[in-house]
Amino acid sequence: MKAYIAQRLLASIFVVFMVATAVFFIMRVLPGDPAAVMLSTEATPETLATLRRQLGLDLPIHVQYWDWLIAVTLLDFGESIILNEDVLSLMLQRLPVTIPLAILAMTVATLIAIPPGVASALRRNTKSDIAISLGAFGGLSIPDFWLSILLILVFSLYLDLLPPGGYVSIFDDPGEGLKRLILPSVALGASYAAALTRMVRSGMLEVLGQDYIRTARSKGLTERVVIWRHAFKNALIPVVTVMGIQIGVLLGGTVVIEEIFSLPGLGSLLLNGVHRRDFPVVQACVLIIAVMFSVANLVTDIVYIYLNPRIHYV
What we know:
Blueprint: H1 2-29, H2 34-39, H3 45-55, H4 61-73, H5 87-122, H6 127-141, H7 144-158, H8 174-208, H9 211-218, H10 223-251, H11 255-260, H12 266-275, H13 279-307
Helix pairs in contact: 1-13, 5-6, 5-8, 5-10, 6-8, 7-8, 8-10, 9-10, 10-13, 12-13
């Protein structure tokens, strides 16, 4: 197990390196000039050349890449070209928004998905199974932005129960901060719950047909013990795989939801960086997202061992 984790860590480092390298060169191949963005279209060629020299954009691309790579190994992501602020500080300001939102959204998705998924598998081909399946397909079909607007209309404008948007740090005011994260978390979690429901149902159907389930029932174990202690635990293995991918996506930032609910998260920082051709911001954000994806996948593999001790890595 330790050897496998070490291999995965090395593989993750390589993947993060390749992703960061690809983004570095892609940002410089795409049309657009950060200096022109900063100075607007009325800037003279001399002014543009001076600013490019100050930003280091006049250097050969391989020299820029080498300088950036050395700085990143020292956790120096540079300064934002547009905002003139330290990029690491900008990301640290945004992560306390994105991480709680991702955790709450994944919690909502899990709570919504597991009971219907299990019930659908236990009542296969019945009316309740068909209703749950239709609900899951409906959840997959509903766009996040439409559901977000609907939630704001119902719970903010009509019922006046929750704020429609804005951000308050949960560290400064936990109650108000959580209230402002409820609607975006539900909007995000609903779509992920639909996919998880289908995965739970499929996993449970596969496990319920195994011989050890019939053996457990023949020993006189109660149906509750058979379902939750024997079947459900093994059915979670494919579900955990999907959850690992989903939590990686959520930690990477959800641009649409953050824009609708006015949340200053990592996704909005990345989007603004792309629009403004802010190379240091985009490179750092993508690097952090790649790291979080790799960590999520590694944690998923470790959870496999807990769910099924018979799994061995070589």
